[in-house]
Amino acid sequence: QVLLQESGPGLVKPSETLSLTCAVSGGPISDYYWSWIRQAPGKGLEWVGYMFSNGNTDYNPSLQSRVTMSVDTSNNHLSVKLTSVTAADTAVYYCARVAVWGSYDALDIWGQGTTVTVSS
Amino acid sequence: DIQMTQSPSSLSASVGDRVTITCRASQSISSYLNWYQQKPGKAPKLLIYAASSLQSGVPSRFRGSGSGTDFTLTISSLQPEDFATYYCQQSFNSPRSFGQGTKLEI
């Protein structure tokens, strides 16, 4: 059973860099694609990006200049960094596994999410 | 970018009711449409992928249909645990995008 667990600082100051990790247990990280999604308080879901098993990434253009996703296969965890944060980046951040069926994909396993507040 | 629009934004129903939620894409996405359920304080859960394929472990009262630009999620007989917010998501191209959500209330 694959489990995902996000972690990181709950509070980040404006203009600083938000750094989160997602520990993957129960299966090899290299066999799948991975994604980060965020949800601002009381709002809907926003796709942050995908990380492919070959290390390639696909970011939401709205965040592309500020976001970096990476994978550490030796420790089986994912990371996301978001630079120059503002209050608009306050959200619950989820990591999720991307399941693939032919040309179709969906987010089939999610972490429980970690809350990040941007405030001075 | 593809815009996903759900209707209604909220819906009141009772246990045993049949309910339908609609999702419309701003351009054709074939069958590249997923549905998720989210309960308060919890992560979303995948219900349907590829417009009509039921994710493993999801009750058969959930049914997805549609193709092109118009899609529906139907719950045939509401159970108490079904009251939640539902999101559609397109997986046709990047950036993947979600609908704004439909809150299903008692």
SSE arrangement:
The complex is a heterodimer of chains A (120) and B (106).
Chain A: E1 3-7, E2 11-12, E3 18-25, E4 33-39, E5 45-51, E6 57-59, E7 67-72, E8 77-82, E9 91-101, E10 104-110, E11 114-118
Parallel strand pairs in A: 2-11
Antiparallel strand pairs in A: 1-3, 3-8, 4-5, 4-9, 5-6, 7-8, 9-10, 9-11
Chain B: E1 4-7, E2 10-12, E3 19-25, E4 33-38, E5 45-49, E6 53-54, E7 62-67, E8 70-75, E9 85-90, E10 97-98, E11 102-105
Parallel strand pairs in B: 2-11
Antiparallel strand pairs in B: 1-3, 3-8, 4-5, 4-9, 5-6, 7-8, 9-10, 9-11
Characterization of the model:
The complex is a heterodimer of chains A (120) and B (106). With 120 residues, chain A is mainly beta. Chain A contains no helices and 11 strands. Chain A has strands at 3-7, 11-12, 18-25, 33-39, 45-51, 57-59, 67-72, 77-82, 91-101, 104-110, 114-118. In chain A, strands 2, 4, 5, 6, 9, 10 and 11 form a 7-stranded mixed beta sheet that branches. Chain A has a 4-stranded antiparallel beta sheet with strand order 1-3-8-7, with no helix packed on it. In chain A, strand 4 (33-39) and strand 5 form a beta hairpin. Chain A is globular, with a radius of gyration of 14 Å. Chain A starts with a strand and ends with a strand. The mean pLDDT of chain A is 95. Chain B has 106 residues and is an all-beta fold. In chain B, 0% of the residues lie in helices and 48% in strands. Chain B has strands spanning 4-7, 10-12, 19-25, 33-38, 45-49, 53-54, 62-67, 70-75, 85-90, 97-98, 102-105. In chain B, strand 5 and strand 6 form a beta hairpin. Chain B is globular and about 35 Å long. The relative contact order of chain B is 0.34. The mean pLDDT of chain B is 97. The interface between A and B is medium-sized, with 26 and 26 residues.
